[in-house]
Prior knowledge:
Blueprint: H1 2-8, H2 22-26, H3 30-40, H4 56-67, E1 90-94, E2 99-107, H5 116-127, H6 134-141, E3 149-154, E4 161-169, H7 170-190, H8 194-206, H9 215-227, H10 234-243, H11 247-258, E5 264-269
Parallel strand pairs: 1-5
Antiparallel strand pairs: 2-4, 2-5, 3-4
Amino acid sequence: GKAWREMAYAGHEYGRPARGTQDSVAAITRDDLVGMHQRLMQRAGLKVAVVGAIDATKLASLLDDVFQALPAHTSLSKIQRITMQGLGTRKVIDLDVPQTTIRFGRPGVTKRDPDYFAVVVANHILGGGTFTARLFREVREKRGMAYSVYSQLNEYDQCPMLIGAAATKNERAGEALKIIEEEVRRFADHGPTEDELDKAKKYLIGSYPLRFDTSTKIASQLVNLQLDELEPSYLDERNGRIAAVGLDDCKRAAKKLLGDGGLLVTMAGRPTQA
């Protein structure tokens, strides 16, 4: 994962390890933490969601108690837009371990893209993590190469992407990657079947209520709505937008997401035939 990010976002903040490195963490001082706190903590842009037995009047008072002392604005640096780099590149990191871990990905789409919901459906069919996903079926179910293989949409503000992963024993890693690449190209060129589309939409619609079965999940969804600058009505409209995705929509979305099937790939282990 570290190598993948460094190649995809060379010279950009997204290319840095989120948890730092041994050297960078060891070098952090108290003054660094105080300075970061002063830059990060501000009322501008603050998003709050509250779920529970409380009314608006009492909540307003409590929010003032907690956040009123924060500055209205601070001097956060702006993250610049970047286009993901390295498509078509494959890098092997030699590690003396029995399994090879594979990371692969390519540029994605933002939530503002007109085909976004069709892309969500398309990714679910390709590698969305369920037993019906193509990558799961071809790599694990048919060939027993990996316990887990998936793809997912990462909607970073400045560079959305599709990213996936798998792990298998070294002697089958090259074969597993070949199957993944072939399936990505096939899906890009031909899209899903009617049956795949129907199953994906039923799953995405039927599982949606599980995002709201605890107070914590509800609060999280409400914060995400604010971060994405969406109205609460989105919660009522989302399933309808999924249901409206037709076969031609999904084929178009698969092509938009996967293009010519080119991937940036990193492999850590000692893969054969890689």
